[in-house]
Amino acid sequence: EMLEEKVQERTEALEQSNENMQRVNKELVKMEKSRRHMLTNISHELGTPLTLIQGYVKAVLDRVDEENHDRYLRLTYEKTLILDRIIGDLFELSKLETGKIRFDCQAVSPAAYIRSLYDKYELSFKQEGYSFEFIDRSASVAHRGAPVWIDVLRMEQVVTNLLFNARKFTPSSGFIHLIVEQSGSREKGDLGVRVTVQDSGRGIDEEDLPFVFDRFYRGKESSKNSSTGTGLGLAICKEIIAQHGGTIEVESKLGSGSAFTFTLPVMNDMEEELAHDKGSE
Ligand code: ADP
Fold first, then answer.
1. C-alpha to C-alpha distance for 59 and 45, rounded to whole angstroms
2. What spacing in Å lies between the alpha carbon of 43 and ligand 1's midpoint?
3. How many Å lie between the centroid of ligand 1 and the Cα of residue 228?
4. Which of 19, 27, 31, 56 is most buried per CB count within 10 Å?
5. ipTM over 0.85
6. Which ligand 1 atom is at minimum distance from the Cα of 231?
């Protein structure tokens, strides 16, 4: 009987480790796929402007199309600006990932902080025709007043990036909502604040969705009409949020809009006290 029990135990353990292996394998396949996507996109994003620059410069050197030379030079200059932005973003991302950027954090009230960012863009977004709203759903809940520990400039970069993306992919007759609410609860020890940028824009293809936070990943549509993006914005957002102990995710439906949501932990009483002591040193 003892033997039977042992065999049973072993079998279960084997099954468990088999399951784990399968999970790891799946994860690896996903990583490999996303790495391949990234390489394709790096070559594409850097290669396209370079090829164009070569063409314009060659035309000038060979003195063909002379009446267009001014335009070619201007286009060349514009393409170098794009390359400069890509390289700048890439450099920033790698500095973030290797921990070379020091965060200058302070305790701030999340709702008031997000509101201040809304105020900054309210006029211009509304002037462009958007129905742009700030929605504070944190007002009635427990964590009102509980601060988050953030680098305000870095966090502004995240919110701005999400807002500008929303604007880029939403016709000006649409809406953009900036929402603040509670996530988790004090009792469960996972109390946080959730910030959402929701738009009524063109949405994201289900196929693209798992990759939008990857470096250089741009939806098929975005890369086709080669607008101004670098495909690095969301990767940078994700890294900044991760370094604040938070997470970021996206929900979207093609044709009806997207919602990018990040969650940050709020400080507990002890952390608040520590931060306060530090501040008054
Ligand atoms: P970029 O905007 O420079 O292309 P991002 O990393 O900011 O790069 O975004 C990656 C891709 O995710 C975009 O190219 C686009 O396809 C998709 N995307 C991001 N935000 C939105 C949005 N609000 N609505 C629709 N698509 C979006």
1. 22
2. 18
3. 11
4. 56
5. yes
6. 8
